[in-house]
Design brief:
424 residues; alpha/beta; 13 helices; 16% strand
Length: 424
Amino acid sequence: METASDYGAFMEKFILPPTSSSPDLPLSSLTFAVKDIFDVKGYVAGFGNPDWLRTHEIATSTAPTVLAILSAGATCVGKTVMDEMAYSINGENIHYGTPRNPCAEDRVPGGSSSGSAVAVGANLVDFSLGTDTGGSVRVPASYCGIFGFRPSHGAISKSGVVPMAQSFDTVGWFARDPKILSRVGHVLLPSPQQAAPVRPTQIIIAEDCFQLSSIPYDVVPQIVIKAIQKLYGVDVLRHEILGEYVKAKVQSLKSFMIEENTDQVYNIPSLAALSSAMRLLQRYEFKNNHGEWINAVKPDIGPGISERVSDALTTKGEGIDICHSIIKELHEALTSLLGDFGVLMIPTVPGPPPKLQTNSSELEIFRARAFSLLSVVGVSGFCQVNIPLGLYNDLPISVSLVARNGADEFLLHLVESIYDNIEK
């Protein structure tokens, strides 16, 4: 499907012109692409799988998020490839091909919003829309060396978007430039009740989370710390062992905690438990959404994903109430930690993008660490932004900033300020 110039990012190309051509509109003259999970009138949302495409109707209306962007003056140029049924963070699709990572061609682009991230990273569009349930905007943004924003849970309409797991589904977006990232946010996010301050009250570095990363500790945080000190001084910085804080505050996690094994590769038990709870509820909701269709159609699903789908289909309702308690408790614990305008700094992922076609057993430790990091925001419903920091050993590196649910505009402003002060 790939042409020489599109990096395999697109499912279909088409032009949806803006609904007004006024040059004063916030996204005037910008181009964007949408993940193949959004309804676009006249097309089928293919959900990354040919059997889904074959058995679903053409959309009779366009998703409200896409309409809002067209109304703001941007032009849509097509739909992008995604991982099947949004059930992977790798970005490899056996049916439609794997979009090529523009930063590192022998590496995965990250999923499930793979084509949307590649389209931005390869300069094919100015920004793009994706979705993020377990990490599907944050991971490909990190792997492709671009900005990716996962908004607060519930901040943006998911109408006209195929659900994956409603407790975690969000509509997110990618850009190469923090100003465009913000401009898209102004269009999609609800207007804030009060003007957000630009200055954060505190920036908390989750020291234990950086130990999960294969990139040396003095590389990633230091780049950002320098910019923060230049802007706000040293007093705004704090350090926290996030795993210990979560363990103490989120009592319902106990039933997901595994006895610590000292031989284990470094992990953070409370965050590993958080990840287990998130994945259990995700499987349960996925089954409720799509189990009937899968059993009736018996779709052809690629390796890795087919095993996950099978696990989902056998998931029972045990432990689901505890998962909902964990969501509530983590939300309260992190709200208390950060306050209104505090920020948490964590790695987005545990290292550079894995090589293409890496053996799944080799990927397991990496995936486990990734979900420990990704579940902090997945479960709390907070907002998170991936900030690209260039290359280390010729591979893209990044960091994430996290703010409380509802502080999206504040976080977008903050990223602009910090990024302007990072030494490139």
